[in-house]
């Protein structure tokens, strides 16, 4: 083979590789969900540096990662377009109305994420407030935006002693929450975040038995300089981590196909785009099943330790995932561990689901929160 032939072949190969690399870069530029968004998050984290002391003073929690502010009243315009007031009491519970509850009078404790807290609706329209109206019992709302089931369980363990006369504990699990349990730094899973200080406890599923791992930024907070190092490490080690968005893009895109983020969340996103249930894969996934079962068992044990009936409500994110968790819940109901635990399949409610979340970019409407409350009330009432 002549030198010119070798040179020509090498040039063609280089051109082919260059075209492949440019194509991979273009794909990432148009659709950036296969490679890491670490650079974007670290930049945003650095921009939030001046607010870190305020976060530590008002929102930081060494165990769960963050919590609601205490004794705060804030008026905002909801996603639905109407003004709402978010108000919390001295224990960081959201008020159901204008006045805080006497802890001695609380009979039902609710914990969960923003669907429990009641984002985008006034206090008396949240599902804990409407559950209070339906049951006639005093209900306290300890939902926290962005929480996963593990954080909600840890929060319950923290606040349960404050309510010595409570007899029911409700853990609200919005279907998407199952992904949050495996995540140690929220921005790894969600590029856009209210706070880039959001380190959190998580469930390690790398061994046979799921293990709860503590908040990386706890039990005492680290200095901000170390926070950036921790964030960079999370983008390397988190369950949902992805390859860096850097050269060689083509190789990193290929590597991304083998990550949990791609073959779990991205396939779920494709299913949603095609009009199917986004979270079916999650509730059939061995890692996420094992983690959620362990967390629910911990919640049930904590409730029992405080002489409360454990109620676990599986809440649809939208009308497209009404029955996502059915098979998983059916399996739990047949386990001796959960013999005394009540499970609520909110998606089975006989309701006008068109009113549940009419604006797909918003949280549920007041009617939607009412559907959740009615479903929980029906299961509780059936046991009395």
Describe this structure in words.
This protein is of the alpha/beta class. The protein folds into two domains: 1-31; 38-382, SGNH hydrolase (Rossmann fold, 3-Layer(aba) Sandwich). The protein has helices at 3-30, 38-47, 52-58, 114-117, 127-135, 149-159, 186-189, 224-237, 249-256, 260-273, 280-284, 286-305, 326-333, 366-382, and strands at 60-61, 65-66, 73-77, 83-87, 108-112, 139-143, 168-174, 202-204, 211-213, 309-315, 342-345. The strands form four sheets. The chain has a five-stranded parallel sheet with strand order 6-5-7-10-11, with helices on both faces. Helix 1 packs across helix 9, helix 2 runs antiparallel to helix 8 and helix 5 (127-135) crosses helix 14 (366-382). The radius of gyration is 23 Å and the shape is globular. The protein starts with a helix and ends with a helix.
Sum up the structure in keywords.
384 residues; alpha/beta; Rossmann fold; five-stranded parallel β-sheet; two-stranded antiparallel sheet; 41% helix; 12% strand
């Amino acid at each position: 083979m002549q030198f010119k032939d070798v040179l020509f072949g090498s040039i063609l190969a280089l051109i082919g590789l260059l075209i492949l690399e440019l194509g991979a870069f273009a794909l990432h530029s148009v659709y950036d969900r296969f490679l890491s968004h670490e650079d974007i998050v670290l930049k945003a984290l650095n921009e939030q540096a001046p607010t870190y002391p305020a976060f530590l003073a008002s929102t930081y929690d060494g165990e769960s990662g963050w919590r609601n502010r205490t004794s705060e009243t804030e008026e905002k315009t909801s996603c639905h377009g109407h003004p709402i007031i978010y108000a919390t009491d001295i224990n960081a519970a959201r008020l159901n109305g204008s006045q805080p509850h006497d802890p001695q009078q609380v009979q039902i404790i609710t914990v969960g994420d923003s669907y429990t807290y009641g984002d985008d609706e006034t206090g008396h329209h949240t599902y804990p407030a409407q559950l209070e109206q339906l049951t006639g019992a005093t209900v306290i709302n300890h939902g926290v935006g962005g929480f996963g089931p593990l954080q909600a369980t840890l929060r319950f363990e923290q606040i349960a002693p404050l309510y010595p006369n409570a007899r029911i504990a409700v853990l609200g699990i919005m279907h998407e929450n199952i992904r949050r349990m495996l995540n140690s730094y929220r921005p790894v899973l969600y590029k856009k975040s209210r706070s880039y200080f959001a380190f959190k406890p998580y469930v390690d599923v790398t061994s046979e038995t799921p293990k709860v791992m503590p908040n990386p930024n706890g039990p005492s907070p680290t200095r901000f300089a170390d926070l950036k190092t921790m964030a960079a490490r999370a983008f390397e080690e988190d369950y949902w981590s992805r390859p860096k968005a850097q050269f060689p893009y083509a190789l990193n895109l290929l590597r991304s196909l083998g990550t949990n983020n791609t073959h779990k969340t991205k396939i779920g996103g494709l299913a949603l785009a095609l009009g199917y249930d986004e979270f079916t894969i999650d509730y059939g996934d061995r890692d996420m099943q094992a983690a959620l079962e362990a967390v629910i068992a911990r919640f049930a044990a904590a409730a029992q330790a405080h002489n409360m009936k454990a109620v676990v409500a599986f809440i649809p994110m939208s009308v497209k995932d009404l029955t996502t968790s059915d098979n998983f819940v059916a399996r739990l109901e047949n386990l001796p561990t959960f013999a005394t635990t009540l499970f609520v399949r909110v998606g089975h409610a006989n309701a006008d689901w068109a009113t549940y979340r009419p604006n797909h970019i918003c949280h549920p409407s007041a009617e939607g929160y009412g559907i959740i409350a009615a479903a929980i009330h029906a299961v509780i009432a059936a046991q009395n």
